[in-house]
Amino acid sequence: MTKLLDFESVDKGSPLEGLSIPALTRVTLARFAGASDDYNPMHLDDKVAAAAGKSSVFAPSHLIMAYVGRMVETCFGGTSIRRYGLRMLKLVWPGDVLTCRGVVIDKRKEGGECVVDADVWADNQRGETVAKGRILAVIPKAPGKPLAKSESSTGVVYPPPKVVAKPKGKGGK
Amino acid sequence: MALPSKFKQMIGKATRPRSLEIEKGQIRRFATAISEDSPVHHDEKAARAAGFTSLVATPTFPAALIATDSLLTEIGLDPQTTMHAEEEYEYFRPVCAGDVLTVTHRVADVYDKQAPNGRLIFVVIETRGNDKRGRPVFKGRRVLVELKN
To answer: Is residue A54 part of a domain?
Structure first.
């Protein structure tokens, strides 16, 4: 299970728990188009993609960002997420298998808050990084200590991993 | 080479503010589409128990608030020749079902860069999502690349 981050325990170089995404399917692309209300045919219609010189449809960057966002939400549960950004480096095609990863690159006190920066990225099955970005969060001072009210009133605080954990065999949609 | 006037004129251009009511179904659908099964996006009781007013959105849900292709068309870009290079969010508070957000996009900057196979034009769009009282909920910044110019 993912451990709750705290300022005492975390250090530069601490890896975030990665997240594997199953091979991308056209059904996922269609579902995401519906969910994000974005029907750009480059992601849905092979003929349109081919006319633009692509070998097939490819994933919208918002989907990649959402996958890395899933890892961020889990790894930074119980912290106050303030910033999250991603830069796209390579296109992602149907059949590609992504792994989202991250590593803490800095921790510091800023205006009385315990701030961490982490690099986050997604690699494909060929080991190529398809997107890379940064997350900034305010984390608890010490293990077992919750965020102060002033720290959690700005940003987004998803439940810590423990609260999210579901009883075995009852997970799913 | 100077920036084509079509692009120069885009700087400062803004979409009309849209008032959007965040729906539970929207939050669930977005989470389901990315296989995110944390109960705070699906089960209202779980979301309330975690301190949210209702179902809470996943971190990149703001991307779904306005269809990218209609946004591009409104600004004057062709969705089929525009690629997404970068996107960043700044979060002030969570987006929850029942929230009414006013969302506005503005072209903050346009610049060009010489690439090995031609010139690329970058368009920076800033998005603001504010609550009913005008307080910021999120800010977004996306960098688009126009390939055909």
So the answer is: yes
